[in-house]
User: Which sequence fits this backbone?
């Protein structure tokens, strides 16, 4: 039976471990790398080699960066009074794609998930609270965690911690806490919507 050369097979097996990559796709990608010009392949290998060496977390919002602070935190043209709390850098990319938001972020790097042994202290929640204590410009916190059970639990926990800081006069009582409205996507048919989606759509309804 024919078998790929050992080195090529090792690359294909590694690629197969990537999310959404099956055996056939992994083999195709391995052959694609094989056909690349030497210079492109060497540049790619160098970037992979330095990925963890050069990539670190922003000291302020915990976005990924190669410097002490990310480009977003260093951009003084952004609204410094607004922080959106998100689970991952992938969520940040979604916000940034359409230029729909001009505030700052705080990346939690996960959500509270007891079944997978992830608690509040495994996330960047304490760092968010410390940030609120130090930064007197903040006027609103948008909780943009996922609308699933773990995301809701994370949002509720953060809200309770912020309210506790307010009660202790450690931060301004005027800081507003908001939650993203979740509901029906554009073009959706009501008959296919589950009751929780309908409930969120009702709760987040606007004047018309």
Assistant:
């Amino acid at each position: 039976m024919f078998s790929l050369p050992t080195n090529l097979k090792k690359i294909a097996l590694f690629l197969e471990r990537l999310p959404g990559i099956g055996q056939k796709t992994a083999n195709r990608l391995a052959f694609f790398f094989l056909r690349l010009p030497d210079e492109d392949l060497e540049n790619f290998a160098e970037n992979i080699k330095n990925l963890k060496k050069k990539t670190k977390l922003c000291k302020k919002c915990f976005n990924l960066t190669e410097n002490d602070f990310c480009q977003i935190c260093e951009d003084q043209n952004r609204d410094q009074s607004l922080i959106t709390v998100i689970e991952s850098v992938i969520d940040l990319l979604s916000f940034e794609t359409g230029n729909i938001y001009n505030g700052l972020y705080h990346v939690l790097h996960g959500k509270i998930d007891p079944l997978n042994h992830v608690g509040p202290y495994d996330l960047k929640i304490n760092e968010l609270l410390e940030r609120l204590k130090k930064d007197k410009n903040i006027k609103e916190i948008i909780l943009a965690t996922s609308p699933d059970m773990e995301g809701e639990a994370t949002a509720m926990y953060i809200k309770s911690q912020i309210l506790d800081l307010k009660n202790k006069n450690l931060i301004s009582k005027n800081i507003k806490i908001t939650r993203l409205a979740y509901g029906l996507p554009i073009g959706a048919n009501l008959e296919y919507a589950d009751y929780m989606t309908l409930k969120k759509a009702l709760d987040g309804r606007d004047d018309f």
Remarks:
- DSSP finds eight helices and six strands in the chain.
